[in-house]
Amino acid sequence: MTPDASAVVTRPAVSADFDAMVTLQSRAFGPGRFARTAYRVREGGPDLSPFCRVAIIGERLVAALRMTPITIGGDAGALLLGPLAVDPEEAGRGYGRQLVAESLEAAAAKGLKLILLVGDMTYYGRFGFRPVPPGQIRLPGPVDPSRLLAAEVQPGALATIHGLVARAA
Ligand SMILES: CC(C)(COP(=O)(O)OP(=O)(O)OC[C@H]1O[C@@H](n2cnc3c(N)ncnc32)[C@H](O)[C@@H]1OP(=O)(O)O)[C@@H](O)C(=O)NCCC(=O)NCCS
User: Fewer CB within 10 Å, N- or C-terminus of the chain?
Assistant: First the structure.
């Protein structure tokens, strides 16, 4: 029988989760994922931040979300969301939605200002993400401007933030 959502546990990711997270990302996205500009921001940094989350059924990792602290134009207080990967066999059960919502709550509790991502408005619009005005925020590589989305954790934050994205020290 397929487990129902009540069998799922979500929690912050720990280092013992990391290998399974990478395996899940590779199943969800395929080998081309390393070419994405968002990966360039993350590379060279720690594997996990306190905002990364996983969903587990029993001992099986079914969804994983990475969140990377970044600076934008030199200012801290922002996170880069992604990758978000859900086991294809468990897609559409709300696990992705749950991890994103919980991570946004954690960011608000820590007083962060903004969450940035490269992804689909059709999925991320439900969490309050909106396209960044063209040219306001730049990543270290090419990005489809319509897929560069931001959610304000602090109302009004986006208007005050502009410049190049880098991984926070
Ligand atoms: C996209 C993904 C993260 C969604 O997670 P999920 O747990 O399957 O989805 P949820 O149950 O949280 O949400 C389901 C909703 O998302 C929508 N959805 C699923 N995949 C989508 C996509 N690629 N684009 C837009 N919407 C999508 C569904 O239509 C559904 O919409 P509804 O709530 O209006 O019915 C997951 O399917 C996945 O890992 N896909 C492969 C990797 C990927 O494309 N990631 C993109 C995010 S960076």
Answer: N
86 CA: nearest ligand 1 atom: 39
Phi and psi (nearest 5°) for 33? -60, -30
Question: Is residue 79 pLDDT above 60, yes or no?
Answer: yes
pLDDT tens digits, 96-125: 999 999 999 999 999 999 999 999 999 999
Residues 131, 118: contact at Cβ < 8 Å? no
Token pair belonging to 15: 């280092």
Amino acid, single-letter form, for residue 157: A
**pTM score above 0.90:** yes
Partnered with residue 165 across adjacent β-strands are 72
What is the longest distance spanned by two Cα atoms in the chain?
Answer: 50
**Strand pairing partners for 68?**
80
CA distance 160 to 112: 13
Could you report the per-residue pLDDT of 35-73, keeping only the tens digit for each? 688 888 988 899 999 999 999 999 999 999 999 999 999
CA of 91 to the centre of ligand 1 (A): 7
Please report which residue ranges of the chain form alpha helices under DSSP H.
Answer: 18-29, 37-42, 95-109, 121-124
